[in-house]
Amino acid sequence: MPYRPLLALLATTSLAACGGDASVDTALGGxxxxxxxxxxxxxNCPAGGVMISTIDGDTFVCNGAPGVDxxxxxxGAAGLDGAAGAAGLDGAGVTVTxxxxxxxxxxxxxxxxxxxxxxxxxxxxxxxATGPVGPAGADGxxGADGxxGxxGPAGADGEGVVVTxxxxxxxDCAAGGLLVSSAAxxxxxxxGxxGxxGxxGPAGPxGxxGxxGxIGxxGPAGPxGxxGxxGxxGxxGPAGADGEGVVLTxxxxxxxxCPAGGVMVTTSGLDTFVCNGxxGxxGxxGPxxxxxxxGPxGxxGPAGAxxxxxxxLNLYATPLIHExxxxxxxxxxxxxxxxISGTATAILADVFVTANGDDHQNIVLGSDCLAxxxxxxxxxxxxxxxxxxxxxxxxxxxxxxxxxxxxxxxYGTWYSSQxxxxxxxxxxxxxxxxxxxxxxxxxxxxxxxxxxx
Length: 453
What we know:
The chain is mainly beta. The chain contains no helices and 22 strands. The protein has strands at about 15-20, 20-30, 30-40, 50-55, 55-60, 95-100, 110-115, 120-125, 160-170, 175-180, 185-190, 245-255, 260-265, 270-275, 310-325, 330-335, 345-355, 360-365, 395-400, 415-420, 430, 440-450. The two termini are about 30 Å apart.
């Protein structure tokens, strides 16, 4: 069914569940949003639906028209009497569901308030535009001398030089030498002429034996030789002895050797009997066949008593802030801001946690959380129910990673849209951080609304 999502509900949302109509009247900027049930038979929604009214006009979300009745089927065999009809549903209540960021109805996250007749959405507001730049401040006092600047870049490379060896007989160097070429020109450095042969000097001492050279690499394999000639065919072996003949004779039921019939195998004058097995004992009675189709459902029982109204979420126009610190493993109760009513049963809050060390711990917040109860497994993949203490309590558990998790939070961790149960009159919540290994830190709450009975 198509619907028109409400992008932002900035003020208090109230839900009335009375009789058969439900509506949500919520302030939205300069106008209201009103959701009203439309009864069947109207001009805009013949099959009934919902009218959404805003400052831009009315939009109808209609139920589909009833389908045409199908042809009557063939009467089936009478089945067993059907079970008594279920008791009527309890009266309409209200369900509040937290929506995460990216939800189709609330892209920025929020809350869906559901009754038997309609759904209403309380979405987080969009981030406001950046405000204008403030006026320039007065000139500050002259700063202290800065540190020495970094070394400047290296200078450009000098001119390249190319050195070329000149062989004996070169026009410029008859005895050979070097030609030095640069951007400035060519210069020749010639070897001197060969001097006269000097007298033979005395023989020098015998030098030490040089180290054994490395073994040379293995040479490539030689080419494969030609295939030799095929040898002569061997003589034919002697013929094997004739096999024994086998005669199979079918034996009928009542045969002396095979009362249930079978086969007689005759070879080399020796008879062997392969007999059919005798009839087995009568099998057990099969299971009872499936039950016939169920008969028609009995009449609907009387409607149950109207259920109690569920709690309603009241969003604050301006969220409330509350923070407290912890040192090591602690259990305590903290009072919340006075703006939270003493009858509130829970708050809707974004929670931020930071600790001064790489310390895995679980932050527990709620109305009955002071007892230390294990809430993690010793090694990955273990069955939680065999490791945990009793966690059936009105508390929210937030995992703060560290130590052998292999990672930790350097800048803190946010936990969005937590519904935290409260102690009442005045509004308080309890805190424990079982498994803390001696680190200290802070818990910071942005309280966006409260649940009232």
